[in-house]
Structure formats: C-alpha cells, structure tokens
Amino acid sequence: MTVKTVASAPISAPAPLWFYLRGRRRRVIYVALYELIAIAAATAGLALVAGQSAGHSGVVAVAASAIAIVWNIVFNWAFERWEARQSVKGRSVRRRIAHAIGFEGGLVFILVPLFAWWFQVTLWQALVMDLGLVVFFLCYTFVFNWVFDAVFGLPLSAQQG
Q1: Which of 80, 46, 67, 68 lies closest to 149 in space, CA to CA?
Q2: CA torsion angle for 68, 104, 123, 38 (degrees, to 10)?
Q3: Closest Cα to residue 143, out of 89, 93, 79?
Q4: Are 103 and 71 in contact (CB under 8 A)?
Q5: Share of residues in the chain with pLDDT > 70 (%)
Q6: Residue 62 neighbours by CB under 8 Å, 6+ apart
Q7: What is the mean pLDDT of each run of 10 residues along the chain (161 residues)?
Q8: Tens of pLDDT along 104-150?
Q9: Boundaries of domain holding 118
Q10: What does each C-alpha distance from 22 to 46, 147, 149 come to in angstroms?
Q11: Does 11 reside within a domain?
Q12: Is 161 a domain residue?
C-alpha cells in the first residue's frame, strides 16, 4: 500500500497594508485620517485665535474640513496626473514641499472668506487669524503625507518604473 502525500503550499504572510490601498480606497483612507486630525487641531486653534468657544469654532472647522475634502480630492487628482507625466519618479522633499504649498495655498483662498463671515471680522483679520493655521497645516500636510506614504506605500504615480 502506497500512501501519497500532498505537498502543502507554504503559507505566506498577508500582503502588506499598502497593497490594498490603491486608487479610490487609498484616497478615502488618506482623506479620512487627514481630516479627523485636522478637525481636532483646527477647532483648538480657531478657538484660541478667535477667542471663541470650541463649539463655535468646531462648526467652522467641520465646514472647513468638508471644503478641504473636496479640495483634497480635486488637488490630489490633478497633482497625481501631473506627477505621473514627470520623468523623475518618487517624492523628493522639493516635490513634497510643492504639494503642501499648493494644497494649503488653495485652501487659503477658500477659507479666509468663510472665517471672515463666521467670526464676523474683516478679510484682513481673517487672513491674519488664518496665518497660524496655515503654518501649522503646511507642516502638518508635509509630515502627514510623508508618514502616510511610509506606512501605506507610494501611489502608483510616484513609484519607480
């Protein structure tokens, strides 16, 4: 009597988390994590700068977050299309700085009028109020993107071919 043995396939480790984060799924996770942290930071910062309650500042922080989500989707779509056409792949410090400045610069044009209306101040006062947030968010965006890419991997547009 001969006993046949079946060679079992080696069990491989599960795919890294970034493997599952391509395209739309990657963008949704990115935006959700980014905005949750941003709402908490903006609420605290706006309450401090405007001298308003966290509740009052939190409402505008949530509105700003919703605006930022739409801007994030539009800006990152355009940035990744541009990035995919570049001959040099990867995300250098220079490219990350350009990304952060472009993203935050666009938000300034949208959010300063909102802040002026919400806090009932002039556009100039709203801009001055927003400067602290802009500096914070420039640094936050830069660091968040770097950490996000380190944890979840680079998007296809930035990978070496």
Answers
A1: 80
A2: 50
A3: 93
A4: yes
A5: 83
A6: 39
A7: 50 50 78 89 88 92 89 90 87 89 88 94 90 83 88 73 59
A8: 889 899 999 999 999 999 999 899 888 888 888 788 988 998 888 88
A9: 20-153
A10: 34, 16, 12
A11: no
A12: no
Please state, in angstroms and as integers, the Cα–Cα distance from residue 115 to each residue in 14, 37, 76, 108, following that order.
46, 19, 24, 10
Residue 4 lies in a domain: no
Pairwise CA distance, residues 68 & 86, whole Å: 26
Quickly list H helices, 51-92.
54-84
CA distance 128 to 119: 13
Q: What amino acid is encoded at 23 in this protein?
A: G
Question: What is the token pair recorded at 60?
Answer: 């505008």
Q: How many domains does the chain have?
A: 1
Domain presence at residue 69: yes
Map tokens 């380190």 to a residue. Answer: 150
CB 50 within 8 A of CB 138: no
The CA distances from residue 144 to 57, 69, 90, 149, in Å, are: 23, 15, 17, 8
By residue count, the chain amounts to 161
Q: What is the dihedral of CA 126, 40, 48, 141, to 10 degrees?
A: -60
Task: Scan for tokens 């060679």, then name that residue.
Answer: 7
